[in-house]
Amino acid sequence: MAVNTERLSSILRARERRLNIPHYLRLDGSRYLLALVLFLALMSLVVLLQTGAVATQGYAISDLQSEKTVLMRERAQLQVREARAQSLTLIRQRAEAIGLRPLQPEQLRYLEIASDGH
User: Fold this and answer.
1) Is the pTM for the entire model greater than 0.70?
2) CA-to-CA distance for 78 and 85, rounded, in angstroms?
3) Please, are residues 17 and 25 in contact by the beta-carbon 8 Å criterion?
4) Distance in angstroms (rounded) separating the CA atoms of residues 29 and 33
């Protein structure tokens, strides 16, 4: 009877590899250094992303502040125009320009309305 030693030896090698797994997972100095470098790289990436986000928000705030300044100037100009438009002398000049004139006392007419007794 022949025994297949090749199959038996592959099973033994697999068992030896399985027993050596803790050896592969053991961290020596170079693996600690590699883990530290990866950790620092990830932390640097996080800091870089946060810095980019803050810079983007800073630009947005700056744009909004300049827009606010422009709108406040425009508002002030509109308030000046409104004040000028409500000036009585300017209203009188406009009325005279289109042919209106002040009411004369002889132009007044009063109407008397009879009450119903209520």
Assistant:
1) no
2) 10
3) no
4) 6
Which residue type, as a one-letter code, is found at position 60? A
- 90 near 84, Cβ under 8 Å? yes
For the chain, percent of residues with pLDDT exceeding 90: 42
DSSP string, 39-108: HHHHHHHHHHHHHHHHHHHHHHHHHHHHHHHHHHHHHHHHHHHHHHHT-HHHHHHHHHHTT--PPPGGG-
Q: Beta-carbon neighbour count of residue 90 at 10 Å? A: 12
Q: Which amino acid is at 94?
A: R
3-state secondary structure of 29: helix
CB atoms under 10 Å from CB of 92, counted, come to 13
